[in-house]
What does this fold into?
Amino acid sequence: MSNKLIITACISGAEVTKEHNPAVPYTVEEVVREAKSAYDEGASIIHLHVRTDDGKPTQNQDRFKECINAIKEACPDAIVQPSTGGAVGMSSEERLQPVNLNPEMATLDCGTCNFGGDEIFENTENMIIEFAQKMAEHNVKPECEVFDKGMVDMALRLQKKGYIKDENLHFDFVMGVNGGISATARDLVFMVGSIPSNCTWTAAGVGKNAFPIAAMTIVMGGHVRIGFEDNVYLEKGVLAKSNGELVAKVVKMAKLLGRDIASPKETREILRIK
It folds into this structure.
């Protein structure tokens, strides 16, 4: 198995706005600009949420199709990974729309999590099964999004029961969310130690944790997610001008720590995307 580093760029998310950083993309043109900025610096996976032109989160299938096609035109071999998380409060049917487009990958959230205040990101066991079955039906590789250890156990249990069809699961450890596991070295080691050896994993640190988690992940042989969804700052008090700037910083860290960057073709091989 290659030791090359896969970089996933989460270019917009559902919650971050232009008030947080003016470069956060809403329109199709802005989405393509940010995807290309990340791709040009070394990201092979574009984790995609979409918005209406005024910034409202949407899971509309046509909007996803428009954005995916435009990204593919600008970044022909990039892997575009739609989110099925959507935004807090959306129905399962609404959230699942982009899977109908037969993407290579999509996210599969593996548990319910408090997101601060009164916001609850709901993913019941039956919802996870429904999402996993829909992905299997469309031959979409799931990325198991986990915010805590119990969600890892849920994914492995549903795989054993045959609901999640992928033999070699790929996890994304999202760390530092209000209500999820903390973004510490101790907890990253704990999460990595909780998955089987044939699994692959990416880690994402939220806010100030973005680059510390990236550094730990690079050293530990995992893969990195970075982008405006998780963090809008290049360093303390300095807003990133683009997702590309965030990716470039991870690439620089990787080179210092002896990891080469995986191309989209190598990424497909590492993640066993058929």
In short: The mean pLDDT is 96.
